[in-house]
């Protein structure tokens, strides 16, 4: 209850403001503290980004001299069906991953935030994939999915013996499954934290009014998790734009171009085919799309994204 | 200006070397033994990056240690990298001017890209001045080291042709003879399928495994001239009649069920394709000579018990290629990084002349079941435990009328990447031979 009170006073005081000199002192100290972060961002974020933008207008094989080319790379990637296929795949994987991961993470998060028996033990099991690197997960799945020496063949389950990584359609579902297996624990953790922030008094009030568990979930838990859902979705969507390591090790973009997502397309062009120019153009494209999506998702939260959801408490 | 940059480069390089080498220091010291700390990579005169993984890692480590002991003023410092990581890292390092003195590679298209960027030294004059170095090596190994008539790399290590392997026990079981011709091979497909055995093992997910089939079919059907026309970038070379015939033949074999079901999901880096052959699930396999060693190590008594058979690739009726022709890796290649300091280059060249193909090194390769690219080693091969195999490989390599380098090494990196993607689609029959040819013809114009 003390937390609720504290939140309320903070929320009610903020818009009132009034102490302008107090605020200016605060801004000064914040700006000072941001210097290391800004310096790191400029050095490792902004400078490489500008470098990539410049490279996207040049011809370079990564070994010899860099030659100015103008818009040639942009014309070539914008007319390249491989790029459009990669773009489509990226959005496909993004949407499917979101559709698969969000409900599972949400339910797992709500479950692990509860007080059931063995909850802590089960939570540890669910979070286990968080401890493994994407490369290790991919190599393990590659071995498990081998049609002759994999899991299905060893256990003798004929239904599971499929051309998992060789069928152009099936492989997409494998990628989405493994991505979800890897990232669901992380998003569950976000939701678990979100659920634990919801004041218990809301549930107490709801049960006095006669609301059941399902009704409480849809009327209290879900609305209260609005910002958690937006945060988690932003991470999923932007993460899908840059999904690389897992797919690279698992399929290498194959069979054919079936899983060649945009980030992989960039890598293969740049570091396998030695065409840094087109690869840089795709990198810039990824940044632009990723930023656009992140801004769009932030808009979804409403203009007053920082307002309180605790009115009336 | 130039002196400043060359002076600053080695210090950064040796710092990098020290950082990267730290985990290996223990191993390096124990390997060097008596030569002490003076031979560690950070203090070495010339540097070399090499691939981790035995047997070549240990052989190279011992070879360099012996060379360093004999040449304390011209030492070589070794750093080891995992294969795929190395391929990316060396390109970046060369572009950044931070490469080691000795650049290890596979010749062909990648070497050409280094040459065109002016990053590796022309060694033609050095070979003319050291004719004995050249005469010791198999002449067929110099092709991929040569760009526009000049030699830019020293061929070394082992020759590994692609070999047609088969499981003798399975052939006895079904009462069949190993295939001599392509028609024999097609006739064997239903025989093995009816017996519940996959005719051919293939790690299709790795793509270059499927490429080996095309390399041989192109040679058998159209002769080595067919790939030469592709290599030279002649317009529409991929849609030549012989090319389309070879592409059609591969799809015919796929359609007939020649390759094991689900081959598109099998990877070669886990050696699952070799396991299919030695566990008796597949009867035949086209693969590099290097798989002999791993099948011997992992396959129980499969190799030592005499169940592993090998043949040249089957001939194709009406084809113009000589049956002695082979494809594969004619050797490994070492070049000198042009921006390196002269003292480092001198040490590297001394190592090229005396160290790299020293007698002990050759013997170590033979003992590990490999054929070094040296002339006049017949007696040593015959004395080996694997004499029959080694002599077959040696005859294949030295007796081949033409030894074509693996396509993904011979072609430029961008063409190779497009080739592998299209081959994967060809084998899964997602595209027709004509579509394959059209897609690949587009790479010739670049």
Q: TL;DR of this structure?
A:
The complex is a heterodimer of chains A (313) and B (446). With 313 residues, chain A is mainly alpha-helical.
Notable features of this structure?
heterodimer, A: 313 residues, mainly alpha, MetI-like fold, two-stranded antiparallel sheet, 2 strands, 71% helix, disordered N terminus, B: 446 residues, alpha/beta, D-Maltodextrin-Binding Protein, domain 2, 2 domains, six-stranded mixed β-sheet, three-stranded antiparallel β-sheet, 21 helices
What does this structure look like?
The complex is a heterodimer of chains A (313) and B (446). Chain A has 15 helices and two strands. Chain A has helices at 2-16, 20-33, 35-55, 72-78, 81-112, 119-127, 134-145, 151-155, 170-197, 200-208, 213-224, 226-241, 245-250, 262-272, 276-300, and strands at 58-59, 67-68. In chain A, β1 (58-59) and β2 (67-68) form a beta hairpin. In chain A, α5 (81-112) runs antiparallel to α12 (226-241). In chain A, 29% of the residues are buried. With 446 residues, chain B is α/β, with parallel strands linked by helices. Chain B has two domains: 2-157 and 331-389, D-Maltodextrin-Binding Protein, domain 2 (3-Layer(aba) Sandwich), CATH 3.40.190; 160-328 and 412-444, Periplasmic binding protein-like II (D-Maltodextrin-Binding Protein, domain 2). Helix content of chain B is 50%, strand content 13%. Chain B has helices at 2-21, 25-32, 56-70, 83-95, 108-116, 124-129, 131-136, 168-174, 182-194, 208-222, 224-231, 241-255, 272-278, 291-298, 342-355, 359-367, 378-382, 387-399, 407-410, 413-427, 433-444; strands at 46-51, 76-81, 102-105, 146-147, 150-151, 154-156, 160-167, 198-201, 282-288, 308-311, 326-329, 332-336, 403-405. In chain B, β4 and β5 (150-151) form a beta hairpin. In chain B, α12 crosses α21. Chain B is globular. At the A-B interface, α7 and α14 of A face α4, α5, α13 and α20 of B.
């Amino acid at each position: 209850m003390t937390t609720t009170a504290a939140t309320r006073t903070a929320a009610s005081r903020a818009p009132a403001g009034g102490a302008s000199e107090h605020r200016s002192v605060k801004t000064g100290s914040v700006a000072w503290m941001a210097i290391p972060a800004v310096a790191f961002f400029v050095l490792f974020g902004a400078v490489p980004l500008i470098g990539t933008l410049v490279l996207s207008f040049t011809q370079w094989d990564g070994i010899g001299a860099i030659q100015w080319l103008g818009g040639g790379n942009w014309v070539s990637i914008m007319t390249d069906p491989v790029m459009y296929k990669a773009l489509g795949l990226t959005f496909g994987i993004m949407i499917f991953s979101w559709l698969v991961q969000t409900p599972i993470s949400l339910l797992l998060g709500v479950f692990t935030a509860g007080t059931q028996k063995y909850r802590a033990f089960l939570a540890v099991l669910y979070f286990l994939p968080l401890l493994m690197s994407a490369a290790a997960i991919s190599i393990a799945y590659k071995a498990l999915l081998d049609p002759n020496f994999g899991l299905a063949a060893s256990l003798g389950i004929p239904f599971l013996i499929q051309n998992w990584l060789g069928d152009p359609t099936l492989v997409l579902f494998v990628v989405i499954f493994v991505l979800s297996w890897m990232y669901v624990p992380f998003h569950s953790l976000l939701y678990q934290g979100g659920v634990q922030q919801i004041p218990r008094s809301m549930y107490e009030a709801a049960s006095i009014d006669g609301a059941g568990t399902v009704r409480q979930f849809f009327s209290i838990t879900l609305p209260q998790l609005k910002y958690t859902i937006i945060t988690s979705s932003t991470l999923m969507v932007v993460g899908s734009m840059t999904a690389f390591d897992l797919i690279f090790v698992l399929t290498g973009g194959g069979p054919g171009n079936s899983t060649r997502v945009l980030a992989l397309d960039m890598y293969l062009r740049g570091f396998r085919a030695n065409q840094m120019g087109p690869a840089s153009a795709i990198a810039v494209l990824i940044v632009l799309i990723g930023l656009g999506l992140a801004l769009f998702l932030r808009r979804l939260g409403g203009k007053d994204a920082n307002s309180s959801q605790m009115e009336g408490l | 200006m130039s002196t400043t940059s060359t002076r600053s480069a080695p210090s950064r390089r040796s710092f990098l070397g020290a950082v990267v080498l730290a985990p290996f220091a223990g191993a390096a010291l124990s390997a060097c033994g008596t030569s002490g700390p003076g031979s560690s990579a950070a203090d070495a005169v010339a540097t070399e990056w090499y691939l981790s993984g035995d047997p070549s890692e240990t052989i190279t480590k011992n070879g360099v240690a012996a060379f360093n002991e004999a040449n304390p003023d011209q030492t070589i410092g070794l750093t080891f990298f995992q294969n795929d990581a190395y391929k990316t890292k060396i390109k970046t390092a060369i572009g950044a001017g931070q490469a080691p003195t000795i650049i290890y590679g596979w010749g062909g298209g990648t070497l050409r890209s280094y040459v065109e960027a002016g990053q590796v030294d022309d060694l033609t004059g050095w070979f003319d001045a050291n004719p004995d170095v050249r005469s010791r090596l198999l002449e067929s190994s110099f092709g991929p080291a040569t760009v526009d008539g000049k030699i830019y790399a020293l061929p070394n290590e082992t020759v590994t042709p692609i070999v047609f392997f088969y499981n003798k026990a399975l052939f006895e079981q079904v009462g069949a003879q190993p295939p001599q011709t392509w028609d024999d091979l097609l006739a064997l497909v239903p025989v093995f399928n009816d017996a519940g055995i996959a005719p051919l093992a293939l790690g299709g997910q790795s793509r270059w495994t499927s490429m080996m089939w095309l390399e041989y079919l192109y040679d058998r059907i159209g002769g080595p001239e067919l790939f030469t026309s592709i290599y030279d970038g002649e317009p529409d070379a991929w849609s030549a009649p012989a090319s389309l015939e070879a592409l059609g033949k591969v799809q015919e074999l796929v359609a007939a069920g020649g390759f094991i079901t689900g081959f598109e999901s099998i990877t070669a880096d886990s050696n699952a394709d070799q396991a299919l052959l030695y566990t008796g699930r597949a009867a035949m396999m086209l693969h590099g000579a290097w798989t002999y060693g791993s099948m011997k190590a992992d396959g129980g008594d499969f190799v030592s018990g005499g169940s592993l058979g090998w043949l040249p690739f089957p001939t194709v009726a009406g084809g113009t290629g000589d049956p002695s022709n082979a494809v594969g890796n004619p050797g490994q290649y070492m070049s000198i990084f042009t921006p390196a300091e002269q003292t480092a280059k001198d040490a590297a060249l001394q190592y090229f002349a005396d160290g790299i193909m020293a007698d002990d090194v050759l013997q170590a390769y033979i003992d590990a079941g490999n054929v070094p690219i040296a002339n006049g080693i017949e007696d040593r091969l015959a004395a080996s435990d694997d004499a029959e195999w080694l002599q077959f490989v040696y005859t294949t390599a030295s007796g081949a009328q033409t030894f074509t380098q693996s396509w993904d090494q011979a072609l430029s990196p961008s063409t190779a990447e497009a080739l592998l993607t299209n081959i994967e689609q060809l084998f899964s029959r997602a595209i027709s031979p004509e579509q394959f040819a059209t897609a690949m013809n587009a790479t010739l114009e670049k």
